[in-house]
Amino acid sequence: MPKMSTPAFTRAYSSFSHVDSDGQAQMVDVSDKRVTKRIATARGEIQFSTPEVVDLIRSNSMKKGDVLGVARVAGIMAVKSTPTIIPLCHPIMITKIKNNVEVQDQSTVVVETTVQCDGKTGVEMEAITGAMASLVTVYDMCKAVDKHMVISQVYVKQKQGGKHDFKIQ
Q1: What CATH number corresponds to the domain at position 96?
Q2: Which one of 27, 41, 136, 142 counts the least CB within 10 Å of its CB?
Q3: Is residue 1 in some structural domain?
Q4: Does some domain include residue 84?
């Protein structure tokens, strides 16, 4: 494919940090960034079509085992594996992971994954990858009982460190 390095093309891609001037995917150079404490929290939920599922989770009676515990560990493992899953993510030395997987009500399990590091790039992708892995694990462990689960509302809830901080209530 011919390279398209026309001025208009270059301007169109200049706002995307993971795209070079020729429109090719690239890993961002973070060598000139300063090391700061960085924290991100991602949240998501899975809704069940029947309260029976939550009863089985609460009583630890699911055939595959401890749904919340396994989902918590799956999220932690996913955080640590993010650079192998997301192609342009930097490997980051994670300093802390807190992965809460809890029954919210009679039809919902909520996941909040918080990741922390001292580094040159943020941990939003790690947090959202951990939350998603936890939710998919809940789905996997409950699919024999509920065929109509819905994973939803997955988003980065907060980010601290680097240029831009934000928090969604």
Answers
A1: 3.30.70.640
A2: 27
A3: no
A4: yes
CA of 112: how far to CAs of 23, 66, 99, 142, in Å?
A: 35, 18, 6, 19
Structural domain contains residue 30: no
- Identity of residue 27: M
pLDDT tens, position by position, for the chain (169 residues)? 445 444 544 444 456 676 877 788 878 888 888 999 999 999 999 999 999 999 999 999 999 999 999 999 999 999 999 999 999 999 999 999 999 999 999 999 999 999 999 999 999 999 999 999 999 999 999 999 999 999 999 999 999 998 889 899 8
In a domain, 104, yes or no: yes
Which residues form the domain of 93? Answer: 40-164
In the sheet that 150-160 helps form, which strands lie side by side, from edge to edge? 94-105, 108-119, 36-47, 150-160, 166-167
Residues with a catalytic annotation lie at 140
